[in-house]
Amino acid sequence: MHPTLADDLARFPELLQSARDFAVRELDGLDDRPVARLDRAPGADVLPDGGAGAEGALARFAERWAPGFSASAGPRYLGFVTGGATPASVAGDWLTGAYDQNGSGAAGSWAAALEREAVAWLRELFGLGEAHSGAFVTGATVSNTVGLAVAREWLGERLGVDVSRDGVAALGPVDVLSGSPHSSVGKALSVLGIGRDRLRRVPVLPGNREAVDVDALERALAALDGRPAIVVANAGTVNTVDFDDLRSIAALRERYDFWLHVDAAFGGFAALSPAYAALVDGLDAADSVCVDLHKWLNVPYDAAVQFTRRRDLQVRVFHNASPYLGLPTGEPDFLHLTPENSRRLRALPAWFSLVAYGRSGHREIVERNVALAARLGEGVAALDGLRLLAPVRLNVVCFTLSEDPTPKRVAALADAVAASGEAFLTPTVYDGVPGLRAAFSNWRTSKADVARVLAALSARD
């Protein structure tokens, strides 16, 4: 064994303690460090020939790279939809690395059984029935891709084509209908060979909405003359957290032939609260569902889950036929359900957080975030020079400058807030108007943090 590696092994407990102490210092400083770093990163260094050992690597990281990492784990990182990592999920993530299980299958480990337990708990949390099976994947993009891959196979079933063997070209043109699809849907369609341009946008409801007009969707389906299609519905749109009427969309299947995929990346967590659960009424009727866990479940990157009613078709798409892997019979191994063969046990941090805080603990995070978003929305509406672009429906505040909201001026506002070190917001365009989004999903965020964000917005030039 290399002497440096042997020394690290002999001192492994002390090395973990050093990493633990460093991590604690970094997390303790989240409230005071800049939320985002806008300055330039160091230039690339040369690969060392002689290693410095784990302690040396930690010291080098702390000096050279740690100062430039964002405080995305903290309470005022409101860009994208970024959760933090609860204490229990960090512990689970640490153990994920320590155990280093390959979660591809059940051979030789209980890891796959733990993932199935976590999936079952999440299925219950989101109000889905036992007809839905699921698996962990990296994020919403892969979750949407898996769901749409199964939908693609379903289209083949309806048209008498085995897409997994004959290829997507055997299907002919595919119709994918959606009101306000997330950009990851187009990416998934590109990956799956269906094509980005096969995504047809259906009119949304009037009155500053992003939810699809169900009557317009029905007209679009009727125009297909019985040809099967894919409908992508939204449970929480990215700009304003609007929700499609899932129950009414599902009812259209009595007259039209389509696969219903629901992108519930973060809006699915509305199911945790009695005050907002009605927003996802009908989610259980979906053929496939996407939920992102490193958003509102507050587990470390990367983690998401996908659900489908047609595991048989999922296996047809993703199975890996090899003597050393075994055949997907009975309860199929996870390697037959997702694009990955080698799979990190990303279920473990989620399992830890669910056990530690239960349904009520995660409900409290959701309800607090929603209340804080409403508080920020009220504050933005009261500030001179700013206006809301849409009502605050759940946990995202979408706003812009009151006058002359050009991309350049809105970007300058975002940069000024980031440069203050107080908050980080991401840009968007809503109804043709450049704006900013403040998305609340971090378990640490408090009223005091909202006050600091409003102060940063007030102090803009």
TrEMBL record:
InterPro entries xref list? Aromatic_deC, PyrdxlP-dep_de-COase, PyrdxlP-dep_Trfase, PyrdxlP-dep_Trfase_major, PyrdxlP-dep_Trfase_small, Pyridoxal-P_BS
Is this entry keyworded tRNA processing? no
Keyword Transferase carried by entry: yes
Extract the Pfam families matched here. Answer: Pyridoxal_deC (PF00282)
Which superkingdom does the taxonomy of this entry point to? Bacteria
What is an annotated GO biological process for this record, any one? carboxylic acid metabolic process
Q: Which cofactor does it need?
A: pyridoxal 5'-phosphate
* Modified positions (N6-(pyridoxal phosphate)lysine) in chain numbering: K295
Q: Which UniProt keywords apply?
A: Aminotransferase, Decarboxylase, Lyase, Pyridoxal phosphate, Transferase
Q: Which GO terms describe its molecular function?
A: aromatic-L-amino-acid decarboxylase activity; pyridoxal phosphate binding; transaminase activity
Q: Which family is this sequence assigned to? A: Belongs to the group II decarboxylase family.
The protein depicted here goes by the name Aspartate aminotransferase family protein
Q: Which species expresses this protein natively?
A: Streptomyces phaeofaciens
